[in-house]
Every structure is written in C-alpha cells, then in structure tokens.
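Re: weekly structure request thread

Next one in the queue (77 aa):
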Amino acid sequence: MGVRISPLLLIYHEEMKMIEYFKDAYNELIHKVSWPTAAELWESSIVVMVASLIIAGVVFAMDFVFQRLVQGIYHWF
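Done, posted below.
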C-alpha cells in the first residue's frame, strides 16, 4: 500500500512553490537585471526606426519593379 497525501497539502505545496517563484523573479528583476538608460533607449529606438524605413524602402522598390515587370509581360499578350 502506498502513502496517501492529502490533496490540500499538495495544493499548499504548489502555492508555496509559486510564491517562491514570484519572489525570486522579483528579486532578479530588481537586483540582477541591468536596465538601459533613457539615452540608450532613444538610441536603440532611432536605430530600429531607421532600419525599418530602409527595409520598407527596399521592399517598396522591389514591389514596384516587380509590378512594372509583370505589367510589361502581360502587355505583350
């Protein structure tokens, strides 16, 4: 025969593990994570915006050329 464990004891154990997890996560976010400064965030944001504009321009140019190419091919038929 096995040992019977109360379901309430299991629930309590799981709740304690969850509370410990959240405490550890909070402690790590407050004491171990190095958060960027406002200036670093602005620099990163500008880099992302410029890269996004460049990629959008390249995609637009490719779409425009492909559209003209397909229209030219359809025009022959």
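The mean pLDDT is 89. The chain has one domain: 7-76.
Next request, please.
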